[in-house]
Amino acid sequence: MTGVTARKRGRPPRTESADTRDRILTAAREEFSERGYDKTSVRGIAKAAGVDPALVHHYFGTKEQIFEAAIEVAFAPALGAPEAVADGPLDQVGERLARFVFGVWENPTTRKPLLAIVRSAVNNDTAAAVFRRLVASQVLRRIAGRLDLPDAELRAELAAAQLVGCAMLRYVIKVEPLASADLELIVARVAPVVQGHLTGP
Questions:
Q1: Torsion from C-alpha of 30, 36, 40, 46, nearest 10 degrees
Q2: Do 120 and 36 contact (CB within 8 A), yes or no?
Q3: Is pTM, for the whole model, over 0.90?
Q4: Which residues contact 129 (CB under 8 A, 6 or more apart)?
Q5: Is 75:116 a contact under the CB 8 Å cutoff?
Q6: For 72-122, what is each residue's pLDDT tens digit?
Q7: CA contacts within 13 A on the Cβ side of 72
Q8: CA-to-CA distance for 142 and 81, rounded, in angstroms?
Q9: b/e for 54-87, b at 16 or more Cβ within 10 A?
Q10: CB-based burial of residue 98 (10 Å sphere; 0-12 exposed, 13-18 middle, 19+ buried)?
Q11: I need a surface site. Which of 112, 130, 134, 195 has the fewest CB within 10 A?
């Protein structure tokens, strides 16, 4: 009996802690997605997750840190981009990377959280800094490391600018005719430009 009481007074079981953390993270993603960075609050996240605001701070810290944790999970599908660069001949890297990036955006499941991230980053300097840090450390530097060419980081950034710009116009701003153009046509036009940035003179 004493042993049971002692266990109850200890920390919550690890699975319970993990469940609480996941619930907060899910609520944070939804709040940031629906309200954007500026209008989302720690209190609102806590309410959506059904926990005390102190628990949100306990697991994640500041609002900025919660946002970073939330978008890192949402951004996870895009983290395969460096592998798309490495997985095949260097002279076809532009097409592989373009197909990979547009494939992530074409999928409704991965597009929704990406839209939330981009909208928050465009409208708030803090969110933009978090997003920039994540993209630089998790994607661009890793792509540059696989190129093994002069000015590799600049090449990776220029390729990313080309792809992100197209994605913004097609999926976020929805400029026509780009928004409804056939994906194969877009890849055919964009891939050579991306290839030039990555491996050109």
A1: 10
A2: yes
A3: no
A4: none
A5: no
A6: 777 676 666 667 666 777 788 889 889 988 988 888 877 877 777 777 777
A7: 14
A8: 9
A9: ebbeebbeebeebbbbbbeebbebbeebbebbee
A10: buried
A11: 112
